[in-house]
Amino acid sequence: MYRYSTILGIESSCDDTSAAVWQNGKILANETAGQPVHEAWGGVVPELASRAHQSHILPVIQHALNRAGIGLEQLDAIACTQGPGLMGSLMVGWNTAKGLALALQKPLIGVHHLQAHVAALHLEHEVKFPLLTLLVSGGHTQLLWIPEPGRMQIVGESQDDAAGEAFDKAAKLLNLGYPGGPHIDRLASGGDPKAFSFPDSQTPDLGFSFSGIKTSLLYFLREAQKENPQFAQDRLADICASYQGQVVSSLLKRVKKAIQLYQPASMGLVGGVSANSELRRRFTELGISKQIQVCIPSFTYCTDNAAMIAQAGSMQLEQGESTPLSALPFAR
Ligand code: KG4
Ligand code: ZN
After folding, report:
1. What pTM, to 2 d.p., does this model score?
2. Domains of the chain by range and CATH?
3. Rounded to whole angstroms, what are the CA distances from 134 to 10, 52, 249, 292, 302?
4. Does the pLDDT value for residue 322 go beyond 90?
């Protein structure tokens, strides 16, 4: 039985303000306010992000508590993203969490954002160990080896761009808006993934690299548009499908290698890019073909959310961890 039965989770590391209420292993509420203000800029503008968090944070927390039917006095602990992320964004959530912990005289628990993405696996699955996890977000691409709960080792990571950046930068080249991943995913569903070919990067061991494929798309478009200036518009779905297919192949090639090396009992897929439908489909197929348990969180728990923060917080509290109120957020 959980000692800390009711936890408020808070996430504000980038451009989503989110609050969740976790009780005895269940999510009672998970409320998120996005920030469409960044779309016009083609990326997250830090100053605008902190301002938007400032106006969203209290209403979002109140919303989550109302939806859960939980009063502040019922909370046993406050879990909040401590880092990494944008400093101005982190500070809004962190200071709110500190204020609540101080006023309620309850423990504060600082959560590492990437560990929380991994903790999201436990929200809906009885995860078997040892676990191999592919973490793919806007800032990170990592293969994590988790032999038992609480022990984690990075066994592969990107040498340059993250998988999310590969999607976002391609979307920018194609004038699709920010964040680009969901646009490419949607358009790719109507295209032919074999229409064009983009090169996979050559990396040693379990390393990833995505700067090459983005550059190859740039040159490919330049060349094709010399003959037909409308090329990108005319063949948008095929370009998206082919590009997405190569990014997914590049990710899965390393996952396959890691399965051979580590022989996991289950494989997890987490982080914002795990919302990608092609990646989810082919990752699941791979797990089935290798007879390994596949754990992929539902869409709401893939992109940044506070439910995963509360879940990670509960696991840390179970280990007896809490964070002093003097602790600062960290950007890296
Ligand atoms: O984990 P996340 O929400 O924020 C970070 O911590 O970075 O990940 C955001 C990233 C963005 O790069 C976004 O384009 C990507 O996740 N993303 C997707 C999809 N949905 C979000 N990429 C591909 N396909 C999607 N459906
Ligand atoms: Zn994230």
Report:
1. 0.94
2. 6-120+302-318 (3.30.420.40), 128-296 (3.30.420.40)
3. 24, 31, 13, 14, 12
4. yes
